[in-house]
Amino acid sequence: MKTEPFRLNIFHKLVMTLLAVSLIPLIGVWYAGSSQARSDATANISQHLIMTASGIATGITSWDEANVRALHQSARLEDMRSMEATRQTPILRALGETYEWAFLVFTIEPGGENIARSDDKPLTRFGERSYFQGALKGAPSSRQVLISKSTGRPALTIAVPIRNAMGGTVGVLAMAMKLDDISKVIKDTRIGETGYAILLDADNKVIASGRPDQATDAVQDMSSYPALKVDGIAEQPTVYEAGEKRMVGYARKLPQGWTLLVEQEYAEAYASLDRLETGARALIVLTAALVVGVAAFLAKQLTMPINQLIVVAEQLSKGEFAASIPGIARGDEIGSLARAIERLGISIQMAITRLSRRA
């Protein structure tokens, strides 16, 4: 059996016309508005991350600079330059009492041996520590994060060179500090429900972390952390994949070589934009469904009288004359068609009558 080819009827044409008239402008407005909304959302998110990082960085840098200044001032004292334990110990104890976060202040001679300490514990050797080696080589200040033997927790040690009157390095002055104050600032930093901050040292080891799932009783190496491998993240906030989560983050380099990372889950950061786009898509779908419903209703109103007139025309072609023709009283084109068919029926009847008389 031969299948009739598909043909567009009034319903199809009406649906396509109404969809084009209603959806094309709506989709155009949605696309333009969505692009602008995404641009605005990205700018706001970026600004928030940058401002958060700037605020934390300012506080940390000021804290660090205050410690370095105190060490440099102490290193210039004649008693400190003497490299004699009896003369250095009172200064070290005074520093330890002044800076409550410092649990140990000590000096090291160029060979790496401990000369004096602010506590009463035995002298030890620090020659292998990178902060000592950095200061001994002439760095204005050197830092290292280690697990402290005194507290059993990560601690920051800052070291500066002790120079004699001729400018030669005669030893190193170091301060080992608890990270409680920095950790509190980092942990108290919340960006929405899923955002946090992480502070890393120059070797990408954790100084403090606001991640709820990250341990704080060990020095963790985060060199392989996804955010640190993203190009351009230090210039502007960037979107990247971190495991199964999509994140938006920003990394800021601090003067002391540390890295401050702030990041937030993409889904939360762009939640308001996603709700806006979901609402817009729902509106488009609803509009399309409404258009199809309206088109179906209108098509039915148009095609029903036309189909009735088609039936009348087919009856006329067979010599069957209807008692009444629907739609004659209508004032539109369908009414004109009905009246034309009525006149055609009358003409056919008159022609048949004349033929019958002649016969």
From TrEMBL:
CDD domains registered for this protein in UniProt: HAMP (cd06225), PDC1_DGC_like (cd12914), PDC2_MCP_like (cd12912)
Keywords: Cell membrane, Kinase, Membrane, Phosphoprotein, Transferase, Transmembrane, Transmembrane helix
UniProt-listed Enzyme Commission number(s): 2.7.13.3
Top-rank lineage group of the source organism: Bacteria
Residue ranges of the TM segments: 280-299
InterPro entries (UniProt xref): dCache_1, HAMP_dom, HssS/ArlS-like, Sensor-like_sf
UniProt xrefs under SUPFAM superfamilies: HAMP domain-like (SSF158472), Sensory domain-like (SSF103190)
SMART domains in UniProt: HAMP
Record's catalysed reaction(s): ATP + protein L-histidine = ADP + protein N-phospho-L-histidine
Top class in the EC scheme: transferase
Main location, first listed in the record: membrane
Location in or out of the cell: Cell membrane
Domain HAMP span(s) in chain numbering: 300-353
Keyword rRNA-binding attached: no
Record membrane topology: Multi-pass membrane protein
Name of the protein this chain belongs to: histidine kinase
Source species taxonomy: Bacteria, Pseudomonadati, Pseudomonadota, Betaproteobacteria, Burkholderiales
